[in-house]
Amino acid sequence: MTFRQFAFRNVLRNKRLYIAYFLSSMFTVMVFFTFAIFAFHPAFSEGSVNKYALFGMAVAGGIIYVFSFFFILYSMSSFLQSRKKEFGLLITLGASDKQIRLMVFMENILIGLFATAGGILIGLVFAKSILLLAENILIIDASLDFYFPVMAIVITFISFIFLFFCISVLVAFVLRTNKLVDLIKGDKKSKGEPKASIILSILAVILLIAGYGTSVYVKGASVVSVMIPVIIVVTLGTYILFTQLSVYCIRLLKKNKLIFWRKTNILLFGDLSFRMKDNARTFFMVAIISTVAFSAIGTLYGFQSYLTKGVKEMNPYTYTYSPFLDESDEVIEQDMHKINAILDEQKIDADMESTDLAFYNTSVEESPVLIVKASAYNRFAALIDENKLHPKENEAIIMEQSDAVIMEGQKASEVLMASSVQLDNGQEILPSNTVKSAVGLGFSGYYVVNDNTYDQLGTPVRTDFTAAWNVHDGNEEQVIETGKKLEEQIEHKVFSVDHSIYEINKAYGPILFIGLFIGIVFFVSAGSFLYFRLFTDIDIEKRKFKSIAKIGLTESELKKVVNRQIVILFFSPIVVALIHGAVALTALSRLFDYNLIVESALVLGSFAVIQVFYFFVVRFFYMKQVIQSVF
C-alpha cells in the first residue's frame, strides 16, 4: 500500500467524522458556485439586469469565500484534536513528523477536491431551479435562462482548490506532535474538576441584562448610537455565559441532592460540566454566528416589510393624482382626461373620487392644517371600504393614518389635539377624539368636521386638488403596468402604489436574495460546528457508557441520558442565539417605530424548525452508534 493509498483509506475510515465537514464544505462551494452562475449569466453581461445586483453578488461571493477559509480551518483543527491517539500510534510504528504532516495535507486536499467537484455538480443539478427562484425574488425583466456556466465552473474550481491547498499547507505547517505519552493517552488524561467563578457568573448575567435592557428601552435614533456598545457587552456576556455561568449552574445542580441523585441524573450531570467547559468556545462561536444569521435575515426581511407596508398604509388607493401647487384648472382638467383615457385604454375598471383640500390656520400650528368636511371624507372612505364618520356640529375629529407619522418629536394626533379649529365667527372648536383610518388625504394628520361646520370656516389659506382611483378587481401585472404609464406620462403628479411597491421589491430583491444566502451559509456552518463537537467526543462517551452498562445500565436509561445530554449540548447555543436575535429585531422595530413581531416570528421560527429537524437527524446517528457499541 502506497502512502497516497494510506491517506485515502484514512479518510474512508474516518468518514463519520469527515462527513459533516465534507457536506458543509460542499454546500459552501455550491453557494459560491450559484453566485458565480449569476455573475457570468448572459443577462448580466448584456446589461439588461441591474448592475447593483451583480456588484452585490460579487461582494457576497467574496464574503462566503473568506468565511469558508476560516470555517474549513476551524474544522480541520477539530479533526486534528480528535486524532491525537492515532498520531501517537503512527509515531510508535515509526512515522516521522514530516510524514504525519504530509498525510494530513493529502487528506485535506483529497476532501477538498471531492467537496469542490460535488458542490459544482449539485449546483449544476439545481441551477435551473435556483435561476427561476432568483428571477422571481430579484424581480427582473430579463429571463434568467439556463446556460452551461463554463466560466463559473472554472472560477469556482480554481478558487476552492486554491483555498483547500492554502489551508492544507497552513495546517500541515502549524501541526505540532506532542510528547508520545500525551498522544497515546489522548483523551484519557484527567482534566481536573472544571472551575467557575461566581463573580464572573454574576458579571455574565449583569452584562446580558444590561445589553438586553438597553436594546429594548431605547427607541428612534438612539438605537443606532447604542448599537456598538450593546453588541460588545452582549458578546462579552455570551462568552462568560458559556465559559463560567453554565459550569457554575451545573455545579449548583450537582450539589442539590434531590436533583443530582434522582434516577439517571447522576450520569447526566456527572461530566456535563466538563463537556460544557470543553465546548464553551464552540458554543460561543455558534451562538454569535447564528445570531448574525438571524439578525441579518430578520433585518433585511423586516426592512422590506417596513418599506412596502409603509407605502401601502400611507397610500391606500391604487392611483392618486396630486397636481402642483397653484396648478391651473385647465391643466388639472387635461390631466384628469389623460388619466381616464389611459385607464380606459388599459381596460382598468376603477372607482374614482375627487375633492378640493382646504388648509386653515389653527391656534397652535404655524403651518396650515387640512380640514376636511365629512361628506368628502366619506366618499373617499367608501372607495376602500373604510368606516364612515358622522361628526356632530361644532365637533372636530382628528384623523391619523399611522403611528409612525412624527411631527417635531410628537405624533400628529398629539399636536392636533393641543390645537383647535377657528370658525369665521370667532368660535373655537376643540377636537373631541382621534380616529385611525387608512383614508389618506393628509400625510401628517387632519381634522374632519360636519358639513355645516365646514361652511363656517371662512376663506382657506390655500386649496389643493386631489383625486383617487381604486381598483377592486384587476390583473396585478396590468395594474402595475398601467401605473408605470401614468407616472411616465403625467410625471410627478400621479402616484401608483402597486408600481411603487414593485419598484421597491425590484431594487431590494438582490439585497434580500444575497442576505438570505449568506445567512443560510452561516447557519449551516453553525450547525456543522455542533456536529463536529458532538462526534469528536463520541468515542469517550462509548467507553464511558460501556463501562456503566456492565453494572446495570439498561438500554432505555442509556437512551434517556444520551438524549438529554444531546439536547443540552445542541440547543444551548441555539436558544441563546434565538434570544439574541429576538432582542436585536425588537431593537430594530423600535428604531423604525414599526411592529416587526410577525416578521421576527417567521424568521426565528423558520430557523428553529430547521434546527429541530437537524437535531433529530444528528441524534439518530449519534444514538445509533452509542447503542451499537454498548449493547
TrEMBL record:
Pfam families: FtsX (PF02687). The keyword NAD does not apply. GO terms for biological process: transmembrane transport. Residues 59-177 form the ABC3 transporter permease C-terminal domain. The chain crosses the membrane at residues 20-40, 52-74, 109-134, 146-175, 196-214, 226-253, 283-303, 511-534, 566-588, 600-622. It is a multi-pass membrane protein. It is found in: Cell membrane. One of its GO terms (cellular component) is plasma membrane. The keyword Zinc does not apply. InterPro entries: ABC-4_Integral_Memb_Prot (IPR052536), ABC3_permease_C (IPR003838), ABC_permease_BceB-typ (IPR027022). Signal peptide: none annotated. Keywords: Cell membrane, Membrane, Transmembrane, Transmembrane helix, Transport. PANTHER family: ABC TRANSPORTER PERMEASE-RELATED-RELATED (PTHR46795), ABC TRANSPORTER, PERMEASE PROTEIN (PTHR46795:SF2). Belongs to the ABC-4 integral membrane protein family. This is ABC transport system permease protein. It comes from Terribacillus saccharophilus.
